[in-house]
Amino acid sequence: MKQFKARIISNKVLLRYPGAEYYLMDLLADDKLSELIPGQFVMLKCGGGTILRRPISIHSVKPDNVIELLYALSSGDQSLPSHHQENDAIKTNNEKGKKLLSRLKQNNEVDVIGPLGNGYKMCDRSKSLLLVAGGIGIAPLRFLAERATSMHKSVTLLMGARYQDGLYPRSLLPETINMVNIVETIDMHSSYSKGMVTDLLPQYVNDHDEVFACGPVAMYKAMEEKLSELSFERPVQISLEVRMGCGFGVCYGCSIKTRQGIKRVCKEGPVFNIKDIIWQEVKL
Ligand code: FES
What we know:
Layout: E1 2-17, E2 20-29, E3 41-44, E4 54-62, E5 66-74, H1 88-103, E6 109-116, E7 128-134, H2 138-150, E8 154-161, E9 181-186, H3 201-204, E10 210-214, H4 217-229, E11 236-239, E12 255-258, E13 261-264, E14 271-273
Parallel strand pairs: 7-8, 7-10, 8-9, 10-11
Antiparallel strand pairs: 1-2, 1-6, 2-5, 3-4, 3-6, 4-5, 11-14, 12-13
The structure holds FE2/S2 (inorganic) cluster.
């Protein structure tokens, strides 16, 4: 982890749908970055009087110290990954911070801390991966797919979104993940409780060596139920997205209950085994 200045190369709206916009930000770091692992994130200083930094997933890594971030700006946060036990100060800071980030222009500078957290771990022996993305959960999974295909693993990506306009554009998937078979499911219901992308699991889960997911808590709960119905015993790695204070393990603002005790999402996570989280304790 280090703190560095980064220049914005571009910061543009990727897609819009009722209640939310996704932004893609390309940042040029002023120094060589260490090896980044899919699932890791950075904390960005947003300025404008916000105190806390904003955690953003690394979406892609480009040559010459350029990292790409994908983040969502919402008008009601109903379509975004849910967060647990958030405190109002953090929530207000996050919303204001995201708005400020979306206004930054080319050549503006941002203060970054990262890379942070423990990312996804691919087993060397695995040949085929199943990725399950709910909404903005595509952010770290595209990076994982890119890395996996560069290691000659085959990847199936199940992508879910509430609205057609909320689906990550296929045209923006890089060439290296051409092998990805994308199945899009549209959840037109008013809540994520059905987690429709998870309805696809029975069809795909047993044909893959490893499963990785990123999405809202309701999707994980639906996944856990489905996997237990299927008696699926292999580890499933999920990335938790929660509101954060410091981002590097000091404030305990991101703590969650797991079967191994209290863990900090920013430090011990954000990637966990789905079975390690006590989901009843995680508030939507
Ligand atoms: S955000 Fe401070 S400990 Fe995780």
